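Please describe the entry underneath.
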Amino acid sequence: MAAKQQNNAMLEETAEPSEPSVSSKKTTPKPATPMMAQYIEIKAANPDSLLFYRMGDFYEMFFEDAIAAAQALDIQLTTRGKHLDKEIPMCGVPVRAANDYLQRLIKKGFRVAVCDQLENPLEAKKRGSKAVVRRDVTRLVTAGTLTEDNLLNARENNYLAALARIKADKQNEFALAWLDISTGEFQTTIIPLSEVMSEITRLEPGELILPDTLLSDIEELGTLSELSTTLTPQPSARFDSASGERALKGFFKIAALESFGEFTRVEKAACGALITYVELTQKGERPAIKPPLRRQANEFMTIDAATRSNLELIRTLKGDRHGSLLSVIDRTITGSGARKLNARLADPSVLPETINARLESVDFFLNNLACRAQLRAKLKQCPDLNRAQARLTVGRGSPRDLGALKQGLLLARSLADIFSKNDTGDIPGMIATALKDVAKSKIDLADALDDMLAQDLPAQISDGGFVRAGYRPELDENRRLRDESRKVIANLQAAYSDKTGVKSLKVRHNNVLGYFVEVTAQHGDRLMASPFTQEFIHRQTLANAVRFTTTELAELESNILAAANRALAIEVGVFEHFCEVIKAEAPTITAIAEGLAELDVYAALAELAETEKYTRPRIDRSLAFSIKDGRHPVVERALKASGGQAFMPNDCDLGVEGNGTAERLWLLTGPNMAGKSTFLRQNALIAILAQMGSFVPAASAHIGVVDKVFSRVGAADDLARGRSTFMVEMVETATILNQASDHSLVILDEIGRGTATFDGLSIAWACVEHIHEVNKCRTLFATHFHELTGLAGQLSGLSNATMRVKEHDGEVIFLHEVAPGAADRSYGIQVAKLAGLPTVVLDRAQDVLSELENQDRQNPAAKLADDLPLFSAARPKSHHPAEQGESAAEKLLQAILPDELTPREALDTLYKLKATLKTD
C-alpha cells in the first residue's frame, strides 16, 4: 500500500495543508487539495454509489466509501492526508483486478460509480504544475447492468426489470418490462397485481427498478423485499408514459413507436423507465438492445411463486441450482443455449402448435445421431456471441471479444455443412429457421476480423499487439522503430557494462522513472566517481541498488515511447473502427447467436432423451392427462448417482379424453415416507417438461395442455409478515381454489393438517368438493384424513389411490407404488421409529394409539356424505333465531329470571336445561 501511495503521489499533485481561516465569520472550509475537491464534487453527484476514483494503476475510495468498501472487501483501510483537520480514510484496488472486486461489491448490494482518468498526468501538467487530471464517471455498475464475463453467470440471464403503475378509471394498471443488456433481449407485459410476485420470481432479475412511491403505497408488494433481487426505487417522474414513449423513440431512433407494435400507456411507462435507466448507467454508450416485444400471457403456462419454489424448477428450496430440475435436464453446451433452456423451463408454452414443433425438432436430433454429435462437437468451440457483442457496443470490449466474434461467426458458417453432408431427411421448421439465422454468418465482418486479428490476443487494448502484422503498413513501421530501439537498449546495456566494468549492470524500466541504469549498492559509488560522473546522472538510491540515467538513454526512451504510442494509437483506431462495424451489424449478430442457441437446445434435449430414456409426449387441446410409468427426473438421477435402488415408476390417469368421463381427482392416501409427495411432484414436472418442448421421463404421456400448474406441498411459515404455517397453507390453497380452471393441474398435499383435527378435516373435505364441482381441474390430493375416502362413492370424478406398503415382522417396507384403493393406517409410529425416537416414547405412543382405536370412533365419512349435500347445492345456514326458530332450551333460558331464583330452584332449573338440551 505504501508503494502504491508513493506511485500515485508522483503521478499527481501532493497533499497540501489547508490554510487557516482569517475571518471570524462562519465559512465553508475548503478541501485539503484540488484533487480532493474534485473527488468530493464527483461523489456529490453520485451519492448512492461507491465511487471508484482512478489514480494511476488503482481505483481509490475515500471517506465513508473507503470504510464501507474495506469492510465489504476485507482489504486494508489506511489514510491519505487530511480534510477539515481530520485524517481521510482511504482504501484502493488495482485497476487490473477491479472486476473481481466489483463482483463482490455488487453481490453485497452496492452500486459502484466508476470514475476514470480522461487524460494522462503529463497532459494535465501542461495546464499548470497544480492542474488536476480530468476525471468523470464513465459508468454506473449496478446488479442489472453487468456485461463482464467474470461478473455474470454464462448460463443465466441477468435481467434488469421495471415495474410501472398507472391509475386509470380509479383502478391501478401494472406492467412489467425487462431486458438483458448482455444479450439485447427486451420484453414487456401487462400484469395484474396478484401476479407481480409470480412474474418476478419467474424472471429472477438481478435488479428491479420501480417508482419510489410504489413500495409505500401498495402493501401487497411488501414481499418484494424478501427477494434476492436488488430493488432500486426511482423518481416517479421517470415512469410517465409520455416520457417513456419519447425515451424509446430517441433510443431506437424512430418516429413512431407503432412500428414495434401496440403498447398501452403503462407498458410505455415501464419500457421507457428501463431505457432511461440504461442510458443513465451507461453514460452515453448505447447497448445493442432489440426493440421491445410484448409477451402475450395467454401463450404461456401460469406457475405462481409458491409452485415454482415447491417444484424446485430452477433452484432448490435452499436457493441452489444443483438439485433443481434444470440442473438435471441441462445438456446444453453454449451459454446462450443454457439461457434459452432456462427461459423455456421457467415459461412453458400452452400452444400445442409451438410445443409440437419444438418436440419435432428434438425428435429430429434424436433420430440423427451423427448430425447431433457433429453439431455438439462444433458448439463446444463456440464462444458467447451475445455477450462479446454487448461488451464491444458499450465500450467495455477487449481484443479477445473481437476474437470471440470472429471465432463464432466462422464456426457458424461451417454448421450448414453438417446437415448437407448427413442424410437427415426433411429438416423441421424450427431447425430450418435457426439454420437460416446461422447462415447470416457469411457477412463480411467475419472475414474482415480474420484478416485483421493476430493469433495471440491480449486481455487489454492498452497492451497492443492484437492487429496482425501486414494489416496496416504504418503500424508495422512504428512497431519496427519501437522494437529496434529496444535492441539498441540491449546493446547499450552491454556497452555500459564493459565501460564501467560492472558486469551486473542492467538497463531497466518502470512507469515512474522510465528507462534507467541500475547497479547494486556496492557498485553505486563507482558510477558516482570520476570518470563516470559526467555520463551517468544519479536518479535514486535504494537499500540494495542505485539508479542512474544518461542523455543517450533519455533520447532512446523518447524515440521508443513515441513509436510505441503511435503504434498503440493506430491499433486503438482499428479497434474502434470494428466496434462501429459491430454496432451496425448488431441485429445480424444477434440473429446468428439466437440460431446457435436454438440448435443447442434441441440437440441437448435429444441428448437428454437418449441418455435418460425419455419419450415424446402427445400434446393436444384435450383435457387428457395420462402418464404411464412416470418417473421423477431429479429423484431418479439422485438414486442413480448414489448407486441405490432403481426408481419405481407409476401411472397417473386424471384426464378426460374425447367426450368420455374420467376420474380427474385422485385422493391419495398412505403413510409418510411412502412417496406421496414425490408422486405428486413428478406429474407436475412431467407436464412442465412436456410443454417446454422436452421429452418426458415416462413410458408414454398424453397431456391436454395445462394452462396453470398449482402446487401446495410442504409446510413453511412467513413470520416476517405475521403468517403462521397454517396461514401460509390457507393463503396458497385460496389462490388455487380462486384461480384454477378445468385446464389446470393441481397438486395438494396435507390440506388442513396445520390445525385441529376436525377443523382440518372439514376444510379438506370442503376443498375436495369445491375442486370437484367448481374448478373441475385435474388434481392429485394427498391426505392423511382417511375419512375423505368415503367421498369416492359420492363424487363421480373422484378416485381413491394409495401408496402400497408391506409389513414384515413388525417392520414397514415402503414399496413406492401407487395402487387403487384407500389406506386404513398412516403408520406414523413406524415412521417415528425410523426417525430414531426413543423406545420408551414409541411404546407409550403405541399404548395410546391402541386405546384410541379401541374406542367407538366410527368413520364419519359415510354418514356425512349421506347427511350433507355438496356445499355448492347446500343453502347457507342461518344463525338468526327468527329464521331458525327457537329451541326448547332457548325458550327455557328466555323464561329464567336469575335474580328471583333460590339456590334450590337454580339447581333444579339447571337439571331441566340439561334434559332439554338432550331432547333438542
Observations:
- The longest helix spans residues 551-584.
- Residues 330-443+585-612 form a domain with the MutS, DNA mismatch repair protein; Chain A, domain 3 fold (CATH 1.10.1420.10).
- Confidence is low (pLDDT under 50) at residues 1-25, 717-722, 871-884.
- The longest strand covers residues 798-808.
